[in-house]
Amino acid sequence: MRSIHTVRMWRFHLVAAVAAAALAHASACVAQQPGRGSFDHLRTSFPLTGVHAVTPCETCHIAGRMAGTPRQCEFCHRAGSGIASTFKPPKHVPTNEPCQNCHRSAATWLGARYSHVSAAPGTCMSCHNGSFANGKPAKHVVTAQSCDGCHRTVAWLPATGFSHTGVVPGTCGTCHVPGGPGLAKPANHIPHETQLTAGASMGCDRCHKSTTSFAIETMDHNNTQGNGAGFCRGCHATGTSYLGNMQKKSVTHQSSTATDCSQSGCHRPLGNQGSTYRSW
Asked: Three-state SS for 113?
């Protein structure tokens, strides 16, 4: 009769043999089926970068299917795909362009640069309305023109020359004021508000006829008579430094009693020389 010790030893060796056989079989299976770490995913023309590098294989390879798995972002990152968990949000820029045309990183959706290649001219406001993309700021030039009338798609600033087509005459001051979106008058601008009759109500375009250069101007004296109604010497006296190509002389260069150009007896409208307000 076998001893209890002998039986126990026999059972131990039997269990060890079975375990060794099972381990050998498992090792053989592993050797026949390469694991994830041994497969070069670059062979699929889809490198695993960013979050794709840590995403479980079965997330994309549904039911173990390898061949034919789509490589296009939009195939997976769309509602109802059953593969990806991140999709275009409701406020995404409306576009049918492939995701990778704008999104450069596989680690985050942020930092996208929108490609305007397929954007039709005049449709900027469909996105740049403050909802999908940045819209016009509060101090933007008052205009109904499309953004691409002045702005380029590579940068908002500097904007190209603002098109004044359709701007109502006399409304320049809507933009061309201190703190406004357009260039304001410099400090040494001719003081037309105080030196010309009703000058405060004169629009920029009364003198400035060009919308491409403020230096091109024809002075409109607005029927100013001088002599208190709008002193000529305020701009034309020697020593003044206002902008413009007006002639400047001492008020008494011809008459020691003159107190203003229009009282000299020479310069119109009260004098008799030169065409009105132009050639003195």
From this structure: coil
